[in-house]
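Appendix C: a fully annotated inverse folding record. The material below is reproduced so that readers can follow the format used throughout the book. The structure is listed first as tokens, followed by the designed sequence.
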């Protein structure tokens, strides 16, 4: 019984959204489940997928909160 945990930041990917949409979550669940079926021959009904949305202030990258890291990266050339 595989359990897949997908962690994403809580922010929208399209204008007017502030989180992962229900459709995007459904696609993630389907894709992860199908990957385990294809690679490990695990039946779809035996696979559990958990999606955790994390506020960006609770996500760090490169020693900084993610928003600060993104600002810093945007300032660097190349």
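Designed amino acids, in order:
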């Amino acid at each position: 019984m595989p359990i897949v945990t997908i962690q994403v930041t809580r922010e929208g990917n399209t204008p007017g959204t502030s989180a992962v949409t229900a459709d995007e979550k459904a696609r993630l669940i389907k894709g992860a489940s199908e990957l385990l079926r294809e690679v490990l021959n695990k039946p779809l009904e035996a696979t559990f997928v958990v999606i955790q949305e994390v506020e960006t202030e609770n996500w760090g990258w490169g020693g900084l909160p993610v928003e600060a890291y993104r600002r810093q990266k945007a300032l660097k050339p190349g």
